[in-house]
Write a structure and sequence with these properties.
It contains one helix and two strands, in the order E-E-H. 37% of the residues lie in helices and 25% in strands.
Length: 60
Amino acid sequence: RGPDHQKEFTATVVIAGETLGTGVGRSKKEAEQQAAREAHARISERRAARPMGGSADGAS
């Protein structure tokens, strides 16, 4: 995307069909890192909100 001298890259993290992070950057690496940071933050938030002792699938 963008002119040759000012490229813009987009990366997306998708897990189990769900988009967890999207990043945009001037390099592929920058976009991927931004997407990964966003996905990591979302996953961390979900883990923090989950009750202690519970499993990911809800079984005890």
